[in-house]
Amino acid sequence: MLYRETGQFKTSYAADMAIFPIRQDRIALGALLIFAFVGVPALDAFQVWPFGGEYLIRAILIPFLILSLAAVGLNTLTGYCGQLSLGSGAFMAIGAYSAYKFGTGVRIPLEIFTIDIPPLPVFWCILLGGLMAAFVGILFGVPSLRIKGLYLAVATLAAQFFFDWLFIRVKWFTNYTSSGSVVAPDLTFFGLYVNKPIERYMLCLIFVTVFALMAKNLVRGNIGRQWMAIRDMDIAAELMGIRPLYAKLTAFAISSFMIGVAGALWAFIYLGAWEPLAFNIDRSFQILFMVIIGGLGSILGSFLGAAFILVLPILLDQVPHALGIAVSVETVSLLVFMVTGALICWLLIVEPHGFARLWSTGKEKLRFWPYPY
Amino acid sequence: MRAPSASDIAAGEILLSIENVSLSFGGVRAIRDVSFDIKKGEVRAIIGPNGAGKTSMLNVINGFYQPQHGRITFKGETRTKMRPYDAARGGIARTFQNVALFKGMSALDNIMAGRTLKMKRGFLWQILRVGPALTEEIEHRRRVEEIIDFLEIQAIRKVPVARLPYGLQKRVELGRALAMEPELLLLDEPMAGMNLEEKEDMSRFIIDVNDHFGTTIALIEHDMGVVMDLSDRVVVLDHGVKIADGTPDAVKANQDVIDAYLGVAH
Question: In this structure, are A151 and A47 located in the same domain?
Answer without folding.
Answer: no
